[in-house]
Design brief:
This protein is mainly beta. It has one helix and eight strands. Strands 1, 2, 5 and 8 form a four-stranded mixed sheet that branches. The relative contact order is 0.22.
C-alpha cells in the first residue's frame, strides 16, 4: 500500500469515529405536557421577562420568555416543549430586550450592560421560594396559565 492510499484510509477512519455517536439530549428526558399562559403586572402584559416554573417534585424546571402580549410558552427538555404536570413554584425575572435577528449580534456579554427593564417588578418575584406564586400544570396540559403580579 502506498503512502497516499494509507493516509487517505487513515483520515477516513479517523473522520468516521464520530459518525455513529448519538446527537441529542444527554440528560434524562422529562415527560412534559403543553404549558403556556400570560404574564401581567398591574393588569398590563409584560414583554421580555423569563417565567420559570420550578416543579415541587424537584425535577427539571421549565421556562419561557414573554412576548409583547405577555404570552409565554414553557420548555423543559427544549424550547416550547412544555412542563412537567403538577405543582410549580414560579419565578419571574427580566430577560432583556428581544433579539432583533437570528444572530448573536445583539447578545449582551456583560450583565452590567443589561438595559433596565421597561417595568420594575418587586424583587420577591425573582425567586420561586419568595414569589408567593404556585400554579398547577394539569396532566392534560394548559394554554391559559395566568400569572398576575401586583
Amino acid at each position: 500500500m502506498n503512502r497516499v492510499t494509507f493516509c487517505t484510509l487513515a483520515a477516513m477512519a479517523v473522520a468516521g469515529f464520530g459518525c455513529n455517536q448519538q446527537v441529542g439530549p444527554v440528560g434524562e428526558v422529562i415527560e412534559v405536557v403543553n404549558a403556556s399562559g400570560v404574564l401581567t403586572f398591574q393588569g398590563k402584559p409584560l414583554e421580555g421577562f423569563t417565567v420559570t416554573f420550578m416543579p415541587v417534585s424537584g425535577k427539571r424546571p421549565a421556562s419561557g420568555i414573554t412576548d409583547a402580549a405577555g404570552k409565554f410558552v414553557l420548555g423543559t427538555n427544549g424550547a416550547n416543549d412544555g412542563a412537567e404536570a403538577g405543582f410549580h413554584n414560579v419565578a419571574v425575572v427580566w430577560a432583556g430586550p428581544p433579539p432583533t435577528d437570528d444572530t448573536t449580534a445583539g447578545a449582551i456579554d456583560d450583565p452590567a450592560d443589561m438595559p433596565a427593564p421597561p417595568v420594575e417588578i418587586p424583587a420577591m418575584y425573582a425567586n420561586p421560594d419568595t414569589s408567593g406564586i404556585t400554579l398547577e400544570v394539569p396532566r392534560s396540559g394548559a394554554s391559559d396559565l395566568k400569572i398576575e403580579l401586583d
